[in-house]
Amino acid sequence: MVFYSWEHDGLRECGSLWEALALSVKRHRVIALTGGGGKTSVMFRLADELADMGKTVIVTTTTHIFHPADRNVVESDRASDAAEWLARNARKPDRSRADHGNGTVLVAGVPAAEGKLKSLPLTETAVLKELADVLLIEADGAKRLPIKVPGNGEPVIPEYTDVVIGCMGLNCIGGELEEFCFRTEQAAALLGLKKEPNGRYSHRITCGDAAKILTSDAGTRKLVGERDYRVVINKADDEGLLAKAAEIAGEVERLSQVRCAVSCFLDRKHPQQEREV
């Protein structure tokens, strides 16, 4: 996996997603993820990078997430059960190692239908943040669609959150709004779209649409308030998509001065993508 940050006039390759997002363990101990495609992947990538730094990380949700098959999971509605697990199993950083790379990642949630985990009571989620160096929270759902405009009661961002990361997947660009965007009616209202006589929205999602959704207080930035806000653009998996990511990131910066990271799974390195702004 390769990560980039948008640096005013182009994409700069970074050594980690944490670096690309310019996050700080001191300032960003509680991180909520919202929006569309890639939230879970971003969340666990950050968790693993933090563990490589020797940190204890708890991953949870205020909505639903799929039960991860290859992770340490405590299935309980009580934070005390997570505390007991950590007391028995959490590894201490090995200060003899340059990277201190033996931290711990624990997933905490309540068993739910369809192989999912659901939120602990929010009072219990608040306790989780005291048990870890960093608490990562998936705070939104998008039915596995790449971009989303939230509805009533969404997202579910705890009041003690330090930073919100809004996500999208580039596979929505050029796709029909009704097929690729979750909450079509809300998206149409945000973008100022009208229905066709057949009752449908005949609109393909553009890079400009994505940037507007990512930066709008009615879009992915909803309920962020005065907290720090970051954006991750996922699935920049070929040169054309990387160019689209650069276009979106540049427009995000123009609209809101928000830090934007890009992820891709290509094996080879890209030449730096530049764009005049």
TrEMBL record:
GO terms for molecular function: ATP binding. InterPro entries: Mur-like_cat_sf, YqeC. Pfam families: YqeC (PF19842). It comes from the Bacteria. This is Selenium-dependent hydroxylase accessory protein YqeC. It comes from Hungatella hathewayi.
